[in-house]
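User: Structure please.
Assistant: Input sequence and predicted structure:
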Amino acid sequence: MQSLDISMTPARTTINGHVLPSGLLNMIRDGRWRCPEDQSKIDALFPEREEFYPYSFETMERETKGLCGQSEVMWLGLADATNPPGDIDPQQAVLIADLGIGYDQAIALDYRVTTEDPRVLTLHWRRDSNRWIEIAHNFEEFAKLIGLQEE
């Protein structure tokens, strides 16, 4: 198991060696990284969920560290050419939210395609094996999709 690199700079901008998107950092700093009052957009994106639970910086660190310790396909998924990426590389990811207790459906920044503007994935549970699916090209698009940022 590789150790997790959590950088604790004064501005607290990196987790797992990856710089968090500026939009996410601004929302955390301003107290806007929370479940929006109007949850209709979240309901449309995640119709089967308990809640939308955006992680604090500390929870992002802890949950990402936990992902880095995983080796089971149940949590890592499998590569899927028909619905890419299918899998996640824990060393190239930061978990930022989930859909509530018992759903085990994390939302992650995936830095494999680009380190400057990571795409957003979610873990999709399937009978044969779980897959990580892309839900937004980047954090800004994700924030608009869930109603935390104006379009």
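Residues 28 and 76 are 27 Å apart (CA to CA).
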